[in-house]
Write a structure and sequence with these properties.
The complex is a heterodimer of chains A (about 800) and B (about 50). Chain A has about 800 residues and is an alpha/beta fold. Chain A is about 40% helix and about 15% strand. Chain A is built from 26 helices and 26 strands. In chain A, helix 2 packs across helix 3 and helix 8 crosses helix 9. The longest helix of chain A has 30 residues. Chain B has a three-stranded antiparallel beta sheet, with no helix packed on it. Helix content of chain B is about 0%, strand content about 15%. Classes of the chains: A alpha/beta (about 800), B mainly beta (about 50). The interface between A and B is medium-sized, with 29 and 28 residues.
Chain lengths: ~800, ~50
């Protein structure tokens, strides 16, 4: 592996294909006034913004320094390290010379960072301490060529000092050469100091020789010092040319302001010549010194693009943009300005709500993806929470009220919670009363809270039935408010034909949370209508499936390794990640879809920059915080089929699993894949697997803390890791049955069932009925791995899945 | 152009068609009927993203 450093999110190679590695310098109390002001004002988010800006401008690592006289460096730096580690995607460089402070930071940082810096100024005492820390925590170190005599000025001194440091760090402390980045020091050639006329030459020579004489080490420069004392506009040009020259000599990394470096191609030949003359101290036979000629040449230049000089926006516009961009940082400042001019309710109704509506429109047009909508909602939530103490109580109670619940027996709440997030951040009053709520409770609460609307949610096929069957109860209770229905098992046809007639006010199907938002807008406008049946294309949905109906009943049953049940509780969670269906996670669960306005390249870029780092970060976090506790209850049982029933023998007991048969050709039924008693009987395999409740607990915390975006990400991750566990365990069982010869090459192979046999999840299209769980739980006793059933036979925790496994080669997915 | 199901990752390749739904090879995604569904997870046509 190439020498790299890493954050929680990504690894960065020190030797870049196109050097140098850019280390952002602005998060430094000694180098940035803005950073220092933020720190002194205890505005840590402000400090972080400076780092994020540097990252956006192309920094690949961030130098982080909080040393400031009179402040507690360790307290400040540990706090900043924590903040940066979470929010900045690139690795950091701990800039401190205090060993205790360095160690406190190393302990906290979830990755491999660089320590900046060590030197031999005190003869090596501090160096010893810091090298021990670098060894202990696996960090890299920057080593400055400073010895007891002071800073090394000549190339000889620089190389000699580097060699001494090398001997101690590598020879004595066991660091590898690749763990060290030597900084041969840069002195200004811009201040007219005659002792420094050849300072740039000495530094460049130092780089070349250190690389040559100490193989394997890296070099780094604090670059901008070279031009200290010169006017801003010319500094940028000299820094850029000097950087180019240093890289030519073998420089690996540069500590710079990445926004202030120009590509050489953008610098004119003429400008370059003046820079070269200054760097290489070329007299050129002229009267004036290279420095004077440099200053004269650049005298008329003014800095054209300063990031700090961006135009002042009107605060109304700024708040609008912050909501649309989902940018919470500093939103209170904008709100404070606006609060001087408008009553709080007006800010909500005239700026915030319209901004969120605009976000909804952008989503509808495919210009904004769900995760970004959630960030907007977070900014909205933060704004309203900030304004609330300024609002009258009566103002806060205004508006349309809706009650949300996941129906009886169903524990799934991501859909309902997304509706909650969207509606409550669009100015509606939402009462979210939770999961598994019986109709009686919903009716009582709707009356008590005097709501204008009810929204019912549920993922399962069973939940669609619960909705259909409970509607007459709502009617008999005399409710007259519209009811919105949402859930994966619902279709507009089902709602129109089976639900609408059961209730007196409109019953409306909502395909997603945005449809729910639209329904509320229609209600406000007086145009909300019950869903009507409109099959697509005038045709019912197609029913895909294998057309092959001649199932070979002579296929022999494999020999399982044991009969009966087993529980496995020591599955390594890292084993599951290769089985995660990343496409389903990124696009389906997380909503990072490729819309019509996105090119394939833009989408790849979105994946590379945002989605993959997010996923890698979650995997790491899941492992380090032990959020995944995969367990399996599984077994093999003798069985035989009879018609649509599979009789499963467990000791003295025989259980009858009845499976539905397709109503239309080819009339498949799961029982068809098992041989009858006369045909010699067969073997049925089952499993219940779970990744444990811890990750669900974490998800819930995020939702309750209004961290909507992170909530969707963690929840989606948990759902797909659960599926990965099912895929993984299915493969384990195929191996145990000796039918794993065809192993799919990639995830597409698993998606398209490129293996022998099939697994059918209870509650899914081939056997939608969950009642079989009662027998399954007798067979496998999954209570022992922490999985239980609700009164409607649904498994808890939600991140569990069950299946019957058919070994028959013709067995594939189908729907009844 | 190929399309991918955002719900399950199934890839519709016009060169292959979709035998599970009796769609012959050479049928472009646009020409699939509106009531066509993902042959693996039964998601609607609008659950598909362009892939290439």
């Amino acid at each position: 592996m190439k020498p790299s450093v890493a954050s929680l999110y990504q690894a960065v190679e020190i030797a870049q294909d196109i050097p140098p590695l850019l280390i952002g310098e602005r998060s430094n109390t000694n180098g940035s006034k803005k950073f220092r002001d933020c720190l002194l004002a205890e505005d840590f988010d402000g400090c972080l913004r400076i780092g994020l800006d540097q990252e956006a401008q192309g920094a690949q690592i961030l130098d982080l320094c909080s040393a400031y006289a009179g402040r507690d460096e360790t307290a400040d730096l540990t706090r900043l390290v924590k903040l940066y580690a979470e929010s900045v995607k690139i690795p950091i460089m701990i800039d401190s010379t205090t060993p205790d402070c360095i160690e406190a930071c190393l302990k906290l940082y979830p990755g491999r960072c660089i320590i900046n810096s060590i030197n031999l100024e005190d003869g090596g005492k501090t160096l010893d301490k810091v090298c021990r820390l670098a060894k202990k925590y696996g960090a890299a170190v920057v080593a400055l060529t400073i010895n007891v005599k002071g800073m090394a000025m000549t190339a000889d001194e620089k190389v000699e000092t580097a060699r001494q440091i090398y001997e101690q760090a590598v020879g004595k402390h066991g660091l590898r050469p690749q763990d060290i980045l030597f900084d041969p020091l840069t002195f200004t050639i811009g201040a007219g100091d005659t002792s420094l006329l050849d300072a740039a030459i000495q530094t460049l020579e130092g780089i070349r020789r250190i690389k040559q004489e100490l193989p394997g080490v890296f070099t780094v420069l604090g670059l901008s010092n070279i031009s200290f004392g010169l006017p801003q506009a010319s500094r940028k040009i000299l820094n850029s040319v000097f950087l180019h020259e240093a890289v030519e000599q073998g420089l690996d990394a540069a500590i710079i302001d990445p926004g202030k470096i120009l590509p050489l191609a953008q610098i004119s030949e003429e400008d370059r010549t003046f820079c070269f003359d200054l760097i290489y101290n070329r007299e050129q036979g002229e009267e004036k010194s290279p420095l004077m000629r440099f200053i004269d040449h650049f005298a008329e230049r003014v800095e054209t693009t300063e990031a700090d000089e961006t135009e002042e926006k009107r605060p109304e516009e700024e708040l609008h943009q912050k909501i649309v961009r989902g940018d919470k940082d500093g939103i209170e400042d904008v709100l404070a300005v606006l609060l001087d001019r408008y009553p709080p309710l007006e800010i909500v109704n005239q700026i915030l709500v319209p901004a969120m509506r605009h976000v909804g429109e952008l989503f509808g047009k495919g210009e904004l993806l769900l995760p970004f909508v959630l960030q907007s909602a977070e900014a909205m939530k933060k704004s309203v929470a900030w304004l609330e103490p300024h609002m009258l109580k009566v103002d806060q109670e205004e508006g349309i009220k809706i009650l949300l619940a996941t129906v009886q027996g169903d524990v799934h709440d991501i859909g309902k919670n997304l509706v909650d997030i969207l509606l409550s951040n669009n100015g509606y009053k939402v009462f979210n009363i939770g999961i598994k709520v019986p109709a009686e409770t919903i009716i009582a609460k709707a009356r008590e809270l005097d709501v204008d609307m009810i929204g019912l949610s549920g993922l399962l096929v069973k939940s669609a039935i619960v909705m259909q069957e409970s509607l007459p109860q709502y009617r008999e209770a005399g409710l007259k408010v519209p009811i919105l229905l949402g859930g994966a098992a619902l279709t507009s046809d089902f709602v129109a034909t089976s639900c609408v007639p059961n209730y007196d006010a409109p019953v409306v199907y909502c395909a997603d949370a945005f449809a729910g938002l639209k329904a509320l807008k229609d209600f406000e406008g007086g145009t909300l209508k019950a869903t009507v049946a409109a099959p697509k294309n005038g045709q019912p949905r197609m029913k895909p499936g294998v057309k092959d109906v001649n199932i070979d009943r002579s296929h022999p049953a494999p020999e399982p390794p044991f009969y009966g049940l087993r529980h496995v509780i020591d599955i390594d969670p890292a084993e599951l990640f290769p089985y995660v269906n990343e496409q389903a996670l990124f696009r389906g669960r997380w909503g990072y879809r490729r819309t019509s306005s996105t090119s394939a390249e833009e989408y790849t870029e979105l994946m590379r920059k945002t989605v993959v780092p997010l996923y890698e970060g979650l995997k790491q976090r899941a492992l380090s915080e032990n959020l995944l506790q995969p367990k399996a209850a599984y077994g093999y049982f003798r069985c035989y089929s009879e018609g649509d029933t599979v009789f499963v023998e467990d000791g003295d007991e025989t259980m009858a699993f009845d499976f539905p048969r397709q109503q239309s050709p080819p009339h498949l039924c799961i029982a068809d894949y098992y041989r009858s008693r006369d045909e010699g009987g067969d073997v049925a395999a089952f499993f219940v697997v779970t990744i444990g409740e811890q990750i669900a607990v974490e998800s819930k915390k995020l939702f309750e803390a209004d961290a909507y975006h992170d909530y969707l990400m963690l929840h989606g991750f948990s759902v797909e890791v659960t599926d990965a566990l099912a895929e993984y365990w299915h493969e384990v069982m195929r191996r145990e049955l000796g039918i794993a010869a065809e192993k799919p090459a990639d995830m597409t192979g698993y998606v398209t069932q490129g293996y022998q046999g099939s697994r059918y999840g209870f509650g899914y299209p081939a056997c939608p009925d969950l009642d079989a769980h009662e027998m399954l739980f007798k067979l496998l006793q999954p209570e022992m791995i922490g999985v239980t059933l609700t009164e409607t036979m649904e498994m808890v925790p939600e991140v569990s899945t069950s299946a019957i496994i058919a070994h028959h080669p013709q067995a594939k997915y189908f729907a009844v | 152009m190929r399309y991918i199901c955002a719900n399950c990752g199934y890839i519709y390749d016009p060169a292959q068609g979709d035998p599970m739904n009796d769609i012959p090879p050479g049928t472009s995604f646009d020409d699939l009927p509106d009531n066509w569904v993902c042959p693996l997870c039964y998601a609607d046509k609008d659950t598909f993203d362009p892939l290439d």
